[in-house]
Amino acid sequence: MKSLALLSLVFFIFLFFIFKPTEDDTRSDYDVYQYVKECKAELGISRKLPQLSCLDGQEIPIFVNKQEIQSDNWNILSDDKKCDNPHWLGGDMGCWTYSHLQVLKLDAENIMVLNCRQKGNTYNKDWFRKTTANLGMNQQQRKEQYESAVGKQKTDRYYLYNTFNDIGLILRNIRTGKSCYLTQYGTAVTGFLPPLDRALPRKDDFLASINPNQSRPPKDFPQNLWYRDANQAFRAPAFTAEAGCIDCHNAHGFKYSPYLNANHGLPNIISMKHLPMLLVGKPFKNHFRKANFLQITTAPIDGKEQLCTQCHKMTTSGTCGMNLEFATGHPDADLHKWLTVGSDFSWMPPIDEDLTVIKKHLAAIKCCCNNPNAKGCRMRKFGPTQADLPAGFNQGKGWVNGQQDELCQGILESIQWNANAY
Length: 422
Hints:
It is built from 15 helices and 14 strands. The termini are far apart. It folds into two domains: 32-235, no CATH class; 290-414, no CATH class. The strands form four sheets. It has a six-stranded mixed sheet. It is α+β, with helices and mostly antiparallel strands and 422 residues long.
């Protein structure tokens, strides 16, 4: 019997080494803790990651026609008006209030961005909410509403005060361009987030680690919504890689818009445009390659370098397409005003160029976004690993000229420029 047991042990050890996964595997047990450990090593983060609460973030006000949305004018949003600074680029889904944002400097090279949203849409404006009594209220008002409630109403009001149904977290090295992404969405969970790089502490210790100014859940509040480890609080890395995070954020690592910009602590967008997009984790690298993301620009137009790419990294996903339309065509302003007149909500500062020149450059970059291999267009790889980058990337080299005729080459001559057409 001892010999049989010994043979069995040897056999299983043999199988283990034959089928042992590689270090950077996409298997289902490549979990959040493993991913975060790999992220810290790749980005060069030596410290413990901070304990996070969505409620520590800056509450971002939403504006419609320069009016801040509060409880007394909530009907402006309810009437399907577009807002000036959507936090989510898609319909009025991005015009919901009570989103909280944090930009944390971890060390000299690394920052962490945490964005917590309560998100709805035109057809389901209550989403997970238990009542509409919170509409337009800020954090302090919701806290007071919760603390003054009794019975079941107290539990309902806690949902309004401290649950979010869309949480996004980015780690990025602003020197190398290495980046990591975590997300949770679709289900209401509290904004008290567990440690990402260590085990979940005991309940009492976890509650004690939270900002004492933030109200704790009532006793009958579902425990699984506030006391859960990192694997329960966030989606698996393989899921997140396919969910579209890097489709949206690949150009600069972050998203720049009237909602989120350098005023909230992000690095200047021009400093980010020179960086590659280097991803941690095989699922993310695989998705980047499968999507074939490319950096795009145009040949000089009338001897002038492409205006858009003087500040931005334009990519086939992330800045091209719908995002380009949002940035250059505010629904309540003509193109000329939106691009050239400064305001609190402009995506770009005024451009000291003739309107005809602006339109010509915009038409060219739009065509190249849709047809990267067209003549007059230029493209290059910008990730997902150092080995994928063309030679001389950091010196602005590695561009490949488009070869296909008559996709974009003739568009500049064929456009009938009309200042009143936009």
